[in-house]
Amino acid sequence: MTEDYALDRGRTESQRLDAQHEVWTKNLGYLVHPRLATRLDQFSRIADIGTGTGIYLIELSRQLPATCQLDGFDISDVQYPSPEALPANVSLALQNAKQAFPAALKGKYDLVHLRLLVLGMEKDDWEVVAANALQLLKPGGAIQWAEGDFLHSTYLRGGSDTRPKTLEHVGQRFHEGISHRLQYGHSTLPAIFEQQGLRGVFQDIVASDRISETRENITKISYDGIFGWARQMHIKGAPGAWTLQEIKELRRKCEEEIQTGGYCRFEIYVTIGYAQ
Asked: What are 25-47's pLDDT values in tens digits?
């Protein structure tokens, strides 16, 4: 299967994804929104679309009874742990979320979780993926989909005599290069959910630095992602791609600003809806 994804899938990126999972979860305060968690029982079945390294399901398996079944899906299995490393009730399979899931899976899940698909999505993909996810739900099942509002990130100083000008410069260049993806998702999912018949749609909105101690890490992780994207654009020879020397120098300056307390913040939008 071919994929339209703006980052690589190497070991370093897998480590970044796992670290990102940790800081996002700390700031959200949950893996499953409390309103949804109360609806789960010892035999619940949960799907994670765009599962990446499977870290979400692996951690969730520690919070739920071993009788729950947790299934992850991604267009690539390159970042999957070996089957032997997975909990017994976690399975990972190949599936393009932009294509229909096998009929045997439709109507089987109590909860479908999605997170940070934005770098693999175009404008029209959001409705398609939402429709495919909805098909997996049992009657009364729920979707939980988390995305960030990266276009409206803010860049804040640490020390009184510092200014995060490189963090802001790099962030804005990233947004300019990928704005065709970033402007959708967090802002459009509620309407998409309602159009597709989900009920009780609501959003939980949390600052990426709700836990102030995570500011440094979430900024480092976010900028590692930006520079990973920049390297991929260079490798692909994309128009306006940054040179490797430019990437190296900008990374150095960003690291210096982060060390002096500079950081980036954005808002995390968790969109939730229930199947009829």
From this structure: 999 999 999 999 999 999 999 99
Q: At what angle do helices 165-182 and 215-236 cross, to 10 degrees?
A: 60
Please give the structure tokens belonging to residue 154.
Answer: 């803010």
Instruction: Supply the DSSP symbol for 101.
Output: P
Residues 90 and 72 sit within 8 Å (Cβ to Cβ): yes
Contact indicator for 143, 276 with CB cutoff of 8 Å: no
Contact criterion met (CB below 8 Å) for 92 and 74: yes
Classify each residue of 193-225 as buried b or exposed e, where b means 16 or more C-beta atoms within 10 Å of its C-beta: beebebeebebbebebbebeebbbbbbbbbbbb
* Statement: residue 190 has pLDDT above 90: yes
For residues 72-79, give the mean pLDDT.
Answer: 95
Q: Residue 1 pLDDT more than 50? A: no
Are the C-beta atoms of 260 and 158 separated by less than 8 Å? yes
Composition of the chain by helix, strand, coil, percent to 5: 40, 25, 35
CB atoms under 10 Å from CB of 124, counted, come to 9
| Interatomic CA distance for residues 188 and 190, integer angstroms | 6
Mean pLDDT score, 62-68 = 97
Q: Which 8-state DSSP code applies to residue 5?
A: -
Q: Is the pLDDT of residue 2 over 80?
A: no
DSSP 161: T
What is the spatial order of strands in the sheet that 137-156 belongs to? 90-94, 69-74, 45-49, 109-115, 137-156, 263-274, 199-207
